[in-house]
Amino acid sequence: MADVEGSNGQRSEFKSVGSANIPGRLSYSIATGMAKYGYDYVLPDMLHAKFLRSPHGRAKIRKLDVGKAKALEGVVDIVTWDDPEVISINPGLTNPPVRTMAGIHGPLIPGEAETEDEEIGAVVVAESPEICDEALRLIDVEYDVLPSIVDAKDALEPGAPIIKHDPKELVSNFSTGDVEAGFREADHIIEFDWGHSRMVSHIPNPNGSVAWWKQDPLGSPGPTLYIEGISPTWGAFQLLPLYNLTFDKLYRGTTFQGGKYCDWIIRRSQLITPLLARRTGRPVRCVNERRNDYYPANPQRYSRAKIGFKNDGSITAVDESTIGDAGAPEENPSSMGGFEARFSPFNTTRCVNQKSRFQEVYTNSGRNTLSQTSPFNWDAMTYAFQIVAEKLGMDVIDVALRNVHGPSSQQDPGIPPGLLMCIDKGKKAMNWKWHPAGTRRLPDGRMHGLSFRYALSPRHAQQPYTATVTIQADGKVYIPLKGPWVGTYSADACALVVAEEMGAKAEDVILLYDNKAIFTPFGGGSDGTTASAWVMKEAAVKCRKLLLELAAKSSVFKAKPEDLDTKDTMVYLKSDPAKAYPFGKFIADEGFGDHDLDITATHFGRPPETTWHKGGHILDTMNTSFCEVAVDTETGETEVLKYVVVCDPGKVLRLTSFEGQLYQAMFFSTGAGLTEELVYDKATGVKLSTNMFEYKKPTMLDMGPVETYAVETRSGNACYGATGISHCMAAPLLPVCAVANAIGKWVEPPATPDRILKALGKC
Fold it and tell me: Considering only CA atoms, which of 112, 124, 106, 117 is closest in space to residue 62?
């Protein structure tokens, strides 16, 4: 597909879009430390709040006595789970429940905890965090400790406790073709197990909020809720019904949020502060400690695959079965597994004989953030291609090319042109020389390993956007938006698109941040960027049309709009380019010198649906990732020597953002594949690795070189043929496959030194 429905979607010349090293509008604030995140807000006369947290994997309160804690000097308030005001605000698990995007469906202060360290029973409000801690120690609480499960497989054992919902409710089956006939056709049949370990997607600044109530001098009578720590894009759909507010009575000013990867949960520490501030009449700050934010982002999965294939590497049949951890339970069960069972990576191959079973289970491992650091069981195919290659003595890339179908359907015998370009660039950058597993030793004695995977890129955010572009008398072009800034610089990509369409200098397009603005460019990382930029493009085209119509009527031109053009924030006469005037002149000439009467255009909409919804049966934008490792077989240490990522984003809108997305994906791949793992005591359900020592998140020192390359086929259907890439590039098992190629043994991820040595029979 391509950007054929939008305006100027087939533009061939670009001055601003895709340019390198254009700083973001907020880069200076971030680099100098002026940027304030939710954690940074401190107000005069501010109180502090902390939750009581469950020390058990699963428990409910039997008895709670806060008398001693209330008597402690400096304690201002203690709110308990059975307080009538809490119950009236959030009636727990009644129907319909108060929702968050990721499933805290229960009350603001629950009486039952579904995971260790979850908020339970009470929240203390005091003059300092230290007094909160002391008061929490004085609370007399008795628990009924309930059976817990933290491993998805254990939930399916006979006699295992059911965590809220019977796993039988969460099974999805999907099949196409004739799987048994496909296996009969095969020359070889292999079966293998693979899986994901749990990983955590830490937000740089701890989750929390500061809230206070006051009369808005510009608002209607009655207090307005001011809250920092919830960005202007999220939270309203929970805060408005919780506190019986209308939109004009809610002020969320946190523009800076920090990078996050698909973490959709709004924590209780962000929702409770308005209640506490209303009760105490003072600003209240409630912020999680780092250890409270170990929420699983990459769900634990156990998968078994059976693959039939011919001697030439062609796959003839696939039978997959997966057990996936859905995390702590929700009131209304919903299965992502049903979607993923249908969105098999093998849909991108010519093999139509497929069967997939996805068993989702609720556990007490933690609140799932709905992240997709490796969506759709993608690496089942990455594993399969490498195992087939080893079995037949083929290059893994040749196996991939033997199986991938053409652009139009699974029956298309061709190969997507963009994929061929990605592979060609990647092989050259890697100096690709595939070798059988365990056969290449480096001069320093370590074993050398390679891996490869392809994926498809065609997606953008699904929601519509309302975009506005305005020219004011100062000659600048403004984009009013509410943010937030989350690390992707989505708004800056939109600004480059506006500069392109308006014929303005990039520095003359200004992002005007206002928490009450309608537009937000966010919606899933680069997925939101490409979709919102498409809508912004349409608004810019409308705005430029209005500008030329106004300029044509002016005394300096007296021409038709089609006789005029724009360049470098100037309107000029095509027949006499020297006759050029700043955008703002035409507003001033009409007496619009004040900002009240500017030129403004708004567009509401979204790009056409992407081929992503076809589940891999149609292929356009694609990508490739390559990994090279060195493994020390005496110590088990793995060094990633190099990542090469060649991606077809359709069209690069902002080069720095494109590169950043790919660096981020490889950072996740290193962590999830080699170092990161949440460890539990199965007997108690308690997490054992909620600190940066036991939970090893990679740093800059752990990362090898990451080379990134763009292939621009313009075949996406968002702005200028762009497409979102953020999900599909995450490849947590890419380094694991490289380790297997190095040592000739498959290692359960994360491939830590002890697991590598165990696979080698050395420990």
Answer: 112
Q: Which two tokens stand for residue 541?
A: 């085209």
Strands 354-361 and 250-252: unpaired
pLDDT for the residue numbered 309: 98
Distance CA 483, CA 258 (A): 12
| SS3 (DSSP) at 11 | coil
Q: Report residue 531 as tokens.
A: 């979709």
Q: Shortest CA distance to 286 belongs to which of 116, 120, 486, 123?
A: 123
As to burial, measured by CB atoms within 10 angstroms (0-12 exposed, 13-18 middle, 19+ buried), residue 334 is exposed
Looking at residue 589, what is its pLDDT?
60
Residue identified by tokens 């380094």 is 735
Check residue 263 and give its pLDDT: 75
Structure tokens at 354: 């497929």
Q: Which residue has the tokens 């299965």?
A: 335
User: Two tokens at 752?
Assistant: 């830590």
Residue 728's pLDDT is 77
Distance, CA of 102 to CA of 116 (rounded, Å): 18
Residue 448 Cα distances to 200, 390, 440, 641, 744, angstroms:
29, 15, 6, 9, 11
Q: Is 663 exposed, middle or buried (0-12, 13-18, 19+ CB in 10 A)?
A: middle
- Backbone φ, ψ for residue 325 (5° rounding): -85, 115
Q: Tens of pLDDT along 265-284?
A: 788 999 999 999 999 999 99
Average pLDDT, the chain: 89
Q: What percent of the chain has pLDDT over 90?
A: 65
d(CA 589, CA 577): 21
Quick check: 639 and 648 in contact, CB under 8 A?
Answer: no
Token pair 């004009």 in the structure block, residue: 248
Residue 200 has pLDDT above 80, yes or no: yes
Task: Please compute the mean of the pLDDT values over residues 376-389 and round it to a whole number.
Answer: 90
pLDDT, mean of residues 43-56: 97
Q: What are the beta bridge partners of residue 124?
A: 50, 78
Phi, psi of 265 (to 5 degrees): -80, 130
Rounded Cα distance, 357 and 341, in Å: 6
Which residue in 300, 315, 203 sits closest to 261, CA to CA? Answer: 203
What integer is the mean pLDDT of 100-123?
78
Question: How would you classify the pairing of strands 208-215 and 140-145?
Answer: unpaired
| 758 exposure class (CB count in 10 Å sphere: 0-12, 13-18, 19+) | middle
| pLDDT score of 106 | 65
- Distance (Å, rounded) from C-alpha 268 to C-alpha 479? 33
Parallel, antiparallel, or unpaired: how do β-strands 477-481 and 509-513 relate? parallel
Summarised one tens digit per residue, pLDDT across range 633-692 is 999 999 999 999 999 999 999 999 899 889 988 998 999 899 998 899 999 999 999 888
Residue 57 makes CB contacts below 8 A (sequence gap 6+) with 115, 116, 148, 150, 364, 680, 684, 685, 686
The CA distance from 470 to 509, in Å, is: 10
Residue 400, φ and ψ in degrees, nearest 5: -60, -45
Cα–Cα distance, 447 to 486 (Å, whole number): 39
Model confidence at 351: pLDDT above 90: yes
Q: Which helix (H) or strand (E) holds 567?
A: strand 564-567
pLDDT greater than 60 at residue 95: no
Q: What is the DSSP track for 294-342?
A: --EEE--EEEEEEEEE-TTS-EEEEEEEEEEE--S--SS---SHHHHHH
Check residue 678 and report its DSSP letter: -
Helix, coil or strand: residue 519: coil
**Structure tokens, 625:** 């990732």
- Could you give the C-alpha distances from 149 to 162, 328, 685, in angstroms and in order? 9, 10, 7
* Higher-scoring residue by pLDDT: 257, 673: 673
Say which residues have a Cβ less than 8 Å from residue 134's Cβ, sequence separation at least 6: 72
Q: Which residue has the tokens 């991606």?
A: 647
The pair of structure tokens assigned to 132 is: 């909160």
